[in-house]
Amino acid sequence: MITVLRKPVVTEKATKVGFINQYVFEVDPHANKIEIRAAIKHMFDVEPLTIRTVVTKGKLKQRMTRKGVQVGRTNLKKKAYITLKPGQTIDIVSGEGSEE
Question: How far is CA 60 from CA 8, 43, 56, 78, 92, in A?
């Protein structure tokens, strides 16, 4: 369960969707929505309404070294946008869920 959710995403866009009761987490690339829902219920004691997932491909990176150009990719990431039922929140800083 704990390995499904890696970390919360704290960006400008993730903060904007927080106002409409959505939270963004980076998740395991092999996790499906059922596993993500179970992990959210287990860790934060809240009921997810919907879960949307996005897979972002790794960026192409290259640098110049003494032996020539070195080419590689960053790892792919999977994010989950989780919408909670009205009246429920997740405190990202302390990691606790609550109902108001």
Answer: 24, 35, 12, 17, 31
